[in-house]
Specification:
Blueprint: H1 11-21, H2 27-39, H3 42-45, H4 48-60, H5 64-73, H6 79-91, H7 95-107, H8 114-126, H9 130-142, H10 149-161, H11 165-173, H12 180-192, H13 196-205, H14 211-223, H15 227-236, H16 242-254, H17 258-268, H18 274-286, H19 290-302, H20 309-322, H21 325-337, H22 344-356, H23 360-369, H24 375-387, H25 391-403, H26 410-423, H27 426-438, H28 446-458, H29 462-471, H30 478-490, H31 494-507, H32 512-524, H33 528-540, E1 549-554, E2 557-562, H34 571-587, H35 594-599, H36 614-625, E3 632-636, H37 642-654, E4 659-662, E5 667-671, E6 674-675
Parallel strand pairs: 3-4
Antiparallel strand pairs: 1-2, 1-3, 4-5, 5-6
Helix pairs in contact: 1-4, 4-5, 4-6, 5-6, 6-7, 6-8, 8-9, 8-10, 10-11, 10-12, 11-12, 12-13, 12-14, 13-14, 14-15, 14-16, 15-16, 16-17, 16-18, 17-18, 18-19, 18-20, 19-20, 20-21, 20-22, 22-23, 22-24, 23-24, 24-25, 24-26, 25-26, 26-27, 26-28, 27-28, 28-29, 28-30, 29-30, 30-31, 31-32, 32-33, ...
The structure holds one DNA strand.
DNA sequence: TTAGGGTTAG
C-alpha cells in the first residue's frame, strides 16, 4: 500500500493511492484518475510513487497506451519514471508498447539506466524477440550508449537465446576484456546452439571458473548424451550448490534415468528448493511417469514447499496425458485460488489439458480469457478442436489467428489437416495444404504429407493417396504406410492393403500393430492359415502385443482396467452389471460381432471375450459409480474396436448418459445413440 | 552468471 508523504496527505491523494493500488481498472476509471491527477496539482508536487503506481495500474489493467499518454501529459517526467515504465512494459509482455515507450524516452533525451538496459536484453532473450533485440541494439548504438562488459554480456545472452550464434560470436570476440561471466555466457550460447564440443573447449581453456561454469557444463554434457561427464562436472565442482544438484537431477531425467534422479533427490536432503521439486515433477512427466508426477506434487505440498506456475504446467501436462479431467479441474481451481499468473505458457497448458480431456468448452473459455496468446496457444486450440472433431471451428480459429497477425507454423497445419481428417473435410484439406506453401511459405514435412495421405485415404481416394506417397519429396515412414493401411481396411481394398502392410513390416518389424494389421486383414478374408502363421511369426520374433487399457476417474481416484482383467475389488458387481448391459443391448437388437471376438485382435487379446474389452468395463464401472447425469469419461491407450463403438452408442441412449472416450488418436463424444466421429475414424 | 514449464500426422 502506498501512502503519500505527510505534506501531500489529503483525502484525495489517499483515495487515489488506494484506487490505483487496487487490482484491475476499466479504461474509464483510468481516464478519470488521469484527469484527477492532472487537475489536482499533483504534478507540481511530483509524488513520484503515486505516478509510478498509476502507470503500473495501466499495465495491470491491460491499457498500456494509457501509460504512454500519461507520460506525455506530464511536463518533463523524471528519468526514473521513464525507466520504470519501460521495464513495466517489458514485464507485461507488451512489446509494441515497449517500443513506443523506449523511443519516446530516447526522444525525451532520457538515457536508459543500466537496470533498464539489462532488463530489455533479458526480456528480448526470454521472449526470443529477435527483431526487437536487434533494433534495440542498433538504437543503442545510435544514441551512443557505451557498452560495458556487463551490457555486452547481456547482448551476448540475447543473441544466444535468439539462436543467432554468429552475432553471439561477433559480440564475444569484439569484447575488449572478458571475465568469467562473459565466458559463461559464451559457453551457454554455444551449448544452447548445439555447439557442445566448442563449449567444452572454451570451458577447458577458461583462466577462471565459478560455480556457474561447472553447472553450465552439467547441462552441456547432458546435451551430448554424456551422463558420465555430466556427473564428473557435478563431482568436481568445488562450490556445489542447489543449482548443481538440480542440474544433475534434471540431466538424469533428460537421459531417461528417473531412478538415479530420485536417488540424488533423496541424497540432496535439506538443500532442496522449489526448483528441485519442479525438476522432479517435470522429470517424471518427461519420462511418462504421470502418476509419480502427481504423487511427487502431493509430497511437495506435504513438505510445505510453495508450488509455482512451473509446477502447475507440469501437473497439467500429466493430467492431459492421463485424461484426468477432475484432477485437471482441481489444478485450475488451485491456480485461481492461489492467484498464480496465467501467462501464455500456463494458459497453453490449461487449454491443452482441457482439450485432451475432452472438455473443449472449458478450453475455449481459458483461451478467451488469456491476456497474451502466442503461437503455442493458437496451435493448442486448433489441434484440440480438430482432435475433438470440430474441424470447422478449427478453421475459424485459424482465420482469427491470421487476422490477429500471428503467423501460423508447421504445427498449426498439422493441427488443421489432422482435424480435417477427423471430420472428413477433404476439400478444405487440399486448400490449406496448398496455402501452406503458397501463402505462408512453409515447406511441408513428412507429417503434413502423412495427414494428406490419411485424409485422402479415409475419404476413399486411395489412388490419389498412393500417388501422393510416390511423388512426395521424402520416403514414406511407418506412420504414413500405417494410415494408408487403415484406409485400405475401411474401404475394403485388401489387395492394396496387403502390399502396404508388407512395406510396413519391412520398415518396422518390431511394431506389434503391424502384425495385428496383417492378421486382421487375413481374418477378414477368412485366410486362417495365414493368420496363425503370422501369430507364430510374432511369437518367434518376440513381438508382444500391447494390452488394451482404459482408465476412468471416480471421486478423484483413477481406476484402470486392462482387457480381460478381473482383479478390480468391485469386479463381481461390475460383472453383474455387464450382464444387465448385455441384456439391455439384446433388447435393442444388438448382436455382438462374433467374428470380431475370435479374430479382431487389433486391440485386445484374442481370447478375452469382447465384453471384457477394457473400455467396456470402464464405462460399466462409470455407470455404476458416477451419479446420474454425470458424463462418463474414459481414456483408452489403443483404438476402440468397432463393436465397442456401436455398443457405446447404444448405451448412451439406453442409459441416457453422455460418454466421452479418448482413444489413442482422437475423441468420441457419445450422446443419444450417436457419436461425434460420425463413425468416421 | 548457472537449475525447473507449453503445441505436432496412423
Amino acid at each position: 500500500m502506498y501512502f503519500a508523504p505527510e505534506s501531500l496527505r489529503s483525502p484525495l491523494s489517499d483515495s487515489l493511492a488506494i484506487t490505483v493500488q487496487n487490482s484491475t481498472l476499466t479504461s474509464r476509471q483510468l481516464r478519470s484518475l488521469h484527469a484527477q491527477i492532472l487537475t489536482n496539482g499533483f504534478l507540481r508536487c511530483r509524488p513520484a510513487p503515486l505516478l509510478a503506481a498509476f502507470i503500473s495500474s495501466c499495465f495491470r489493467s491491460h491499457c498500456p497506451h494509457y501509460a504512454s499518454s500519461f507520460l506525455r501529459s506530464i511536463p518533463n517526467p523524471p528519468p526514473s519514471l521513464w525507466n520504470s515504465t519501460v521495464r513495466l512494459s517489458l514485464r507485461s509482455e507488451k512489446f509494441p508498447a515497449f517500443l513506443g515507450l523506449y523511443g519516446g524516452m530516447l526522444r525525451d533525451g532520457v538515457k536508459p539506466s543500466k537496470t533498464t538496459l539489462s532488463a530489455i536484453l533479458r526480456s528480448c532473450a526470454a521472449y526470443s524477440a529477435t527483431r526487437l533485440g536487434e533494433s534495440f541494439h542498433s538504437q543503442v548504438v545510435k544514441v551512443g550508449f557505451e557498452f560495458d562488459v556487463i551490457l555486452q554480456t547481456g547482448l551476448l545472452d540475447f543473441y544466444a537465446k535468439a539462436g543467432d550464434l554468429p552475432s553471439s560470436r561477433k559480440v564475444f570476440s569484439g569484447m575488449p576484456e572478458r571475465d568469467v561471466v562473459a565466458d559463461n555466457a559464451m559457453i551457454s550460447a554455444l551449448s544452447k546452439n548445439g555447439c557442445v564440443e566448442e563449449a567444452r573447449k572454451l570451458f577447458d581453456e577458461m583462466p577462471q571458473r565459478n560455480a556457474a561454469s561447472w553447472n553450465l557444463m552439467i547441462t552441456c554434457y547432458c546435451k551430448l548424451g554424456d551422463i558420465d561427464s555430466s556427473r564428473r562436472m557435478f563431482s568436481l565442482n568445488p562450490d556445489k550448490d542447489t543449482i548443481s544438484w538440480n542440474a544433475i537431477i534434471d540431466a538424469y531425467f533428460k537421459l531417461h534415468d528417473p531412478a538415479v534422479a530420485y536417488e540424488l533427490f533423496v541424497r540432496m536432503g535439506p538443500a532442496r528448493n522449489y526448483v528441485s521439486w519442479n525438476t522432479m515433477i517435470s522429470g517424471y512427466v518427461r519420462c511418462e511417469e504421470y502418476g509419480k508426477a502427481i504423487s511427487t506434487f502431493q509430497e511437495m505440498q506435504a513438505a510445505n514447499v510453495r508450488p509455482t506456475e512451473v509446477t502447475m504446467v507440469s501437473l497439467l501436462s500429466a493430467c492431459a496425458h492421463l485424461g484426468a479431467l477432475a484432477m485437471g479441474e482441481w489444478v485450475h481451481n488451485y491456480i485461481t485460488r492461489k492467484r498464480l499468473k496465467v501467462d501464455s505458457v500456463l494458459g497453453n497448458a490449461l487449454i491443452d489439458m482441457y482439450c485432451k480431456c475432452g472438455n473443449v468448452e472449458a478450453a475455449l473459455e481459458v483461451f478467451d480469457q488469456l491476456e497474451t496468446r502466442n503461437i503455442f496457444c493458437w496451435n493448442s486450440i486448433i489441434v484440440g478442436l480438430g482432435m475433438n472433431g470440430y474441424g470447422e471451428r478449427a478453421v475459424d480459429f485459424f482465420t482469427m489467428m491470421t487476422e490477429e497477425g500471428v503467423k501460423p507454423d508447421g504445427v498449426t497445419f498439422v493441427g488443421l489437416l489432422s482435424g480435417f481428417t477427423h471430420s472428413g473435410m477433404v476439400a478444405e484439406g487440399r486448400r490449406y495444404f496448398s496455402q501452406m506453401t503458397e501463402t505462408y511459405r512453409i515447406e511441408p514435412g513428412i507429417e503434413h504429407y502423412g495427414c494428406m495421405v490419411d485424409l485422402l485415404g479415409r475419404a476413399g481416394l486411395l489412388k490419389e493417396a498412393i500417388e501422393l506417397i510416390q511423388t512426395m519429396p521424402m520416403k514414406a515412414n511407418p506412420q504414413v504406410w500405417g494410415s494408408l493401411f487403415r484406409s485400405c481396411q475401411i474401404h475394403k481394398d485388401t489387395e492394396l492393403g496387403e502390399k502396404v502392410v508388407r512395406q510396413l513390416l519391412e520398415l518396422d518389424p518390431r511394431d506389434s500393430g503391424n502384425y495385428v494389421f496383417l492378421s486382421n486383414l487375413y481374418a477378414s478374408l477368412s485366410r486362417w492359415d495365414d493368420v496363425s502363421c503370422f501369430r507364430k511369426l510374432m511369437i518367434e520374433k518376440g513381438v508382444r502385443k500391447i494390452p488394451g487399457r482404459s482408465s476412468i476417474e471416480v471421486d478423484n481416484v483413477m481406476h484402470e482396467f486392462v482387457a480381460g482383467d478381473t482383479t478390480h475389488p468391485q469386479f463381481e458387481q461390475i460383472n453383474l452389471f455387464l450382464d444387465e448391459v448385455a441384456r439391455k443391448l439384446k433388447e435393442h437388437g444388438h448382436e455382438p460381432d462374433k467374428a470380431l471376438v475370435l479374430h479382431d485382435i487389433e486391440d485386445e487379446e484374442k481370447d478375452s471375450a469382447i465384453r471384457y474389452h477394457s473400455e467396456r468395463i470402464a464405462v460399466a464401472f462409470g455407470l455404476m459409480s458416477l451419479p446420474p447425469g454425470k458424463t462418463i469419461r474414459v481414456v483408452k491407450n489403443l483404438r476402440t474396436c468397432s463393436d465397442c463403438h456401436s455398443v457405446l452408442k447404444i448405451i448412451s441412449s439406453v442409459f441416457q448418459r453422455e460418454i466421452v472416450v479418448r482413444d489413442k488418436k482422437r475423441f468420441h463424444h457419445f450422446k443419444d445413440g450417436y457419436c461425434s466421429c460420425k463413425d468416421y475414424w
